[in-house]
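My hope is that you will study the record closing this message with an eye to the fold:
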Amino acid sequence: MKPINVGLLGIGTVGGGTFSVLSRNEAEITRRAGRPIRITKVADKNLELARQVTAGAAEVTDDAFALVADPDIDIVVELIGGYGVARELVMQAIANGKHVVTANKALLAVHGNEIFSAAHKKGVMVAFEAAVAGGIPIVKAVREGLTANRIQWIAGIINGTTNFILSEMRDKGLPFDVVLKEAQRLGYAEADPTFDIEGVDAAHKITILSALAFGIPMQFDKAHVEGISQLDPDDIKYAEQLGYRIKLLGITRRRQMNGKAGVELRVHPTLIPTKRLIANVEGAMNAVLVQGDAVGATLYYGKGAGAEPTASAVIADLVDVTRMHTADPEHRVPHLAFQPGAVEDTPILPLAEVETSYYLRLRVEDKPGVLADITRILADQEISIDAMIQREPAEGELQTDIIMLTHLTHEKNVDAAIAKIEALPVVKKKVIRLRMEELG
């Protein structure tokens, strides 16, 4: 049978891994796909690197637009990244009637609605397993494997850089800046790590998972995003003493508010009970926990980045597209799990309406009546305390830390309480507030 011809945009880490794995496992992949899949053309600005990686097995060009216009190319694999030229190339490939495979989570989270709409009208597929959690097949699991379920929530460690940093901060008691430099030295963090450490990368990914889980459009601009750059090692230590681990989680949850449906979409450092499996995911690994009404909780764990783990997902998409290449477009799996006409514009809930538990750390004067004043304010906002630690001040110190864990409450109640607590003369610093999730 005639091979499927693939054009590869970008021969960097993931592109090189894709070329290598596809060549190494060619016979096995052909057996699964039913026909050969071959990268016949590669576009990259670094022609010398492209020639070195392909070793004469594919045509090499520095003109990406010529590749997407090539009538002999059946599938375009976009591994350039970013929002700019990548969007132009993907839209042009679709306009030319070519299927697209991409690992570009930023592109999909921001421009996915436009891209999927264009692909649907043109009758081509856009596959994106590699865009979320690297080699973990979470997109396929949510879109196909759990299709019988009403997904209730998803919570994921979906950025390996931040998970490595948090693991090192906990294990070694080091401050964030020191561990970040080590992560950069080891290659876990980019020279400019902003997207990772400030939660933007995780927000791109949870935006995609939210759309798949709940049949809603991509709504990245409405996600609440917090990173880990301001996290204090003291809070990691106190969390451990209380039986919790701090992880940067992407969380999306279906909620009913005043009889209307809404979706939580948030990324932030989160306290998780140490007894939960996901709390024990260490280093640069990823894990995604999905709660379905029929199946219950399912956990997906593995390498969330790297040349070959991500290539594994890219090639899985190539095989899927090859299998469905000649199928009637109406009988293919929808891009966002639900049939296009059934996608609902369910609103993303404002953070003030999020309901969860909270970790609060207060730096206060060590004197009688302080705790009574604080608990009175919390009670006035209908916030009840689940657990508390009050540190004994060191010898000669006149201030101490009070750490409180609350029961479930709304974010707006906590906002109001913190504003009043910080106004007390005995409170010496801004209140540290971290959210908690039981995930069980």
The mean pLDDT is 96. The first helix runs from residue 13 to 24. The two ends are 49 Å apart (CA to CA).
